[in-house]
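[User]
Um, tokens okay?
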Amino acid sequence: MKILFVHQNFPGQYLHLAQHLGSIPGNQVVFITQRRDAELPGVRKLVYQPHRLVTRNMHHYLQGTEAGLLNAQTVARIALNLKQSGFTPYVIVGHNGWGEIWYLKDVFPYVPLLGYFEFFYRAQGADVGFAPDEPKLFDTGPRLRTQNLGNLLALNAADIGPCPTDWQKSLYPERYRDMLHVVHEGIDTRTVIPDAEARLHLAGHPG
């Protein structure tokens, strides 16, 4: 089986999945990333960098979107080279956050694309608009609405996608939630275990 992973910060949330698939004889696992260090057995890593920086004096609403677009273009070119070399994946698994999966359906239109959807920006109820002393600026709403351009591009391109928690899924517009499924990132219980000797001492409280 041929599997294509895409994540700017290799291996990201795909450490255990890529590691497992790479260990199965006969699988061809390719991972497109910007990270040069780190390797996984059985995983072929293709490192990229966008061909230029974001345009100087770009409108601040669009800086993140252009950065994602530059990533998406470069990843699409690598995917096109893979296709021309005879590599057509059974499935594509990639993180939406940096634009890398936006154009992969233009290369592989019939290959299922599983996009990882981590966060949909909102002017209220998420990472802004909750602190009492936070300035209330009209610019915040339009800026965050524009910041979701990449989310909307990926939602349109992907066939299905995991979200880490119910809360993160709830941030996405209701019209897209049927394609999103909560898949917890998991906890390594061999490392993260209770410490019976741990104590927390608070000033003014006994014990």
User: Anything to note?
Assistant: Strands lie at 2-6, 28-33, 43-47, 91-95, 113-116, 161-163, 180-182. Residues 63-84 form the longest helix (22 residues). The radius of gyration is 20 Å.
